[in-house]
Design a protein that fits this description.
With 421 residues, this protein is of the alpha/beta class. The chain is built from 15 helices and 12 strands. The strands form 3 sheets. An 8-stranded parallel beta sheet has the order 4-11-10-9-8-7-6-5. Strands 1-12 form a two-stranded antiparallel sheet. A two-stranded antiparallel ribbon has the order 2-3. The protein is globular and about 65 Å long.
Length: 421
């Protein structure tokens, strides 16, 4: 299907439209990563190092037949029509509907979503929009988290995600804009030229009689005003970092489906199994934490080997095509989480844009299965892939491990790679 005003053919096109539609600072916030952006770039480029081994004459139904291949799976006990779940992301200024639009799109596509505790919409409203919702928290201490769990449980959250792969976020020396604490008159005056330059984005807010919401309603105490994003961020920054006994306490207090997000090391995967987690997300926070960490897809196979079938494995980071999803599943993931991809969709065309992104991935997964001669995502194995030697370690780790007398390092180090679309 060719691109039209209301439809884009690829996530790269969604990316381009998002850039044209939202103010520069909003777009830059979606794009930026920590420090040099090495991890952010590797999250995407690592998928290109993996190849496929196609099979022919497999006797499969045609590509255009809906439901001809089995794309459905379960995540935390929730049935989803494709192995793609929407990752929790913080305050969304890309659309006045924000997480509500995302929730409606997820429900229409038959999948689930994560909702950030730093989201701009209340969990009660998001759950009412229809999809299974996994509520996400950062560690802020036992006393602070206990009432959040009660609220999420009462609202009908289908699971809990604890994000452990974000421990600081000040090391941003490229591309990251300054985010205001609140939209007062002075701030609005400073940002007005950007907003005026994107009249469609501005009109969507004005016709609702509102402005981008930089508060975090899910962190508001009963009867109190919602804190601003930076107020909540400051509270989180001052909390001592958790240990595994804290994570075990959180899992016990929640009592339902529980995800540990941010696992990159096999030992951490084993600890997650030990404390009774139901799933882990192999993730480096989209390249927004410790720059120089390898791509999440590089860590996936080792994590899967370490824990086997004892826990569900998700992959978060760098998904831009349906073929990327298939590569992750072949290496051991149950499903993937997407973040920037659907934010570009909602920025480009609201709820319809998120639906568009999910359909692009759905068709891409289906077409890749046909090329591999597979009738189901559950038939995928590492034998469907060509994995280059040393892939799991990442380029930077392989170079560091080589003695001085060894062969020359790879000619294209991470920081020299061109940014991906």
């Amino acid at each position: 299907m060719a691109s039209t005003r209301q439809w884009f053919e690829s996530l790269a096109e969604a990316h381009r439209r998002a850039k044209k539609r939202v103010p520069t600072s909003v777009y830059d916030a979606l794009l930026a990563g920590a420090e040099r952006g090495s991890t952010l770039q590797d999250n995407m480029s690592a998928f290109g190092e993996l190849g496929f081994i196609p099979r022919v004459a497999a006797g499969l139904p045609g590509v255009g037949l809906p439901g001809a291949r089995d794309l459905a799976t379960t995540v935390l006990g929730q049935e989803v029509s494709l192995p793609v779940v929407l990752s929790p992301t913080g305050v969304q200024a890309v659309s006045p509907d924000g997480e509500i639009a995302v929730a409606r799109a997820a429900a229409a596509a038959g999948t689930a979503m994560g909702l950030s505790s730093f989201a701009s919409k209340a969990i009660e409203d998001v759950v009412q929009a229809g999809p299974p919702v996994f509520f996400q928290v950062y560690w802020m201490g036992r006393e602070r988290l206990a009432p959040l769990l009660d609220r999420a449980r009462a609202a009908g959250a289908a699971g809990l995600i604890v994000t452990l792969d974000w421990t600081f976020s000040h090391r941003r020396d490229w591309g990251s804009p300054a985010i205001p604490e609140r939209l007062n008159l002075r701030t609005m005056a400073a940002l007005a030229p950007q907003a005026i330059a994107r009249p469609r984005w501005l009109f969507e807010y004005l016709r609702r009689g509102t402005l981008p919401d930089l508060t975090t309603p899910n962190l508001a105490a009963p009867g109190e005003q919602a804190p601003t994003f930076f107020s909540a961020y400051g509270e989180w920054m001052q909390a001592p970092l958790p240990n595994w006994s804290d994570v075990a306490w959180l899992r016990e207090q929640w009592g339902g489906p529980f995800v540990v997000k941010g696992v990159m090391h096999p030992d951490d995967a084993r600890r997650a199994v030990e404390i009774g987690a139901d799933a882990i997300s192999v993730s480096n926070h989209g390249g927004n934490n410790l720059d120089g960490t390898p791509a999440a897809i590089r860590a996936l196979a080792a994590v899967a080997d370490a824990v086997g079938d004892s826990i569900e494995i998700l992959l978060d980071g760098g998904i831009r095509r349906g073929s990327d999803v298939v590569k992750a599943l072949a290496l051991g993931a149950r499903a993937v989480l997407i973040g920037r991809a659907y934010l570009w969709g909602v920025a480009a065309n609201g709820e319809a844009g998120v639906n568009n992104v999910l359909e692009i991935l759905r068709h891409g997964i289906d077409e890749t299965l046909v090329g591999l001669g597979r009738a189901s995502i559950h038939d995928l194995t590492p034998r469907d892939l060509i994995v280059p030697p040393g892939f799991a370690g990442g380029r930077s780790l392989r170079v560091a491990a080589r003695p001085e007398t060894a062969a020359p390092a790879d000619p294209l180090p991470l920081d020299a790679r061109p940014p991906a679309a």
